[in-house]
Amino acid sequence: MTDAHILTIEGLTVGYGSIRVLEDVSLNIPEGRITAVVGPNGAGKSTLLHALAGTAPVQAGRVLFGGQDIVGLAPYQRSRRGIMRTFQMPADFGRLTVLENLLLADRSVGGTGFAQVFTRPRRSWLPGQREAVARARKLLAEFGLEAKENDYMGDLSGGQRRILELLRAVTTEPRMLLLDEPFAGVHASIIERISDFLVQLRDRGISILMVAHELDAVERLTDAVVVMARGQVLFEGSMAAARREKEVVDAYVAG
Ligand SMILES: Nc1ncnc2c1ncn2[C@@H]1O[C@H](COP(=O)(O)OP(=O)(O)O)[C@@H](O)[C@H]1O
Ligand SMILES: [Mg+2]
């Protein structure tokens, strides 16, 4: 592949005390594509994402994001540079509307600003707040969710909520998203909707690195695949090449 790489991982070693979870992992993640990380339970997939987001103890190695080593940076510094992981929304957020949830995720509205947006009449919103509301509405419209603006999060289906979690991350205009099992716990019929949504994100130029077990979705969605087992990378390459290698497929199916 002649792709540019958004992320270059070199000799990454992660451990908790004397427990080694990732052992000398090196990888190139292509820019503007969806890359799947697959492998059996305990392989270290989630730990890899944590290490990239800044929430796992890196013992050695470098992570170059857009050419700069981010290993020493705190999670918030990484997300400001554009590498974001998504979070499940706490149950309390169910009492906020879809629009309010997006505003909470918008850095420019953060701090004390957002309380005003929720509690004051629209007339008294500051220009920056008005812009944030306009941005959130535009985002909802782009993904055909404008009718949901005033729905309470708590009333959404599991799949819709998952999509909103992704939209919250998109609000910050990331360059790269880290997704740990975006299809877990959602109904099979919704996997396709989320898949379509991920393709829309990719087509906006967002690079996606996602851990997933759902073979069909992975095959349909991904441009590149990383197979992990026991803290190491067994294979890195195109989906087609992965299928040709029996050992790889075996490890993958075991996941
Ligand atoms: N905070 C932690 N402390 C100690 N061991 C951990 C911690 N997090 C993960 N591990 C260990 O690292 C290994 C890989 O875990 P994980 O990255 O969650 O795997 P996967 O996501 O591929 O299922 C497991 O053996 C797990 O027990
Ligand atoms: Mg995991």
From TrEMBL:
Pfam families: ABC_tran (PF00005). GO terms for molecular function: ATP binding; ATP hydrolysis activity. Residues 7-255 form the ABC transporter domain. Keywords: ATP-binding, Nucleotide-binding, Transport. It comes from the Bacteria. The keyword Transport applies. InterPro entries: AAA+_ATPase, ABC_AA/LPS_Transport, ABC_transporter-like_ATP-bd, P-loop_NTPase. One of its GO terms (cellular component) is plasma membrane. Coiled coil: none annotated. This is ABC transporter-like protein [Acidimicrobium ferrooxidans DSM]. It comes from Mycolicibacterium parafortuitum (Mycobacterium parafortuitum).
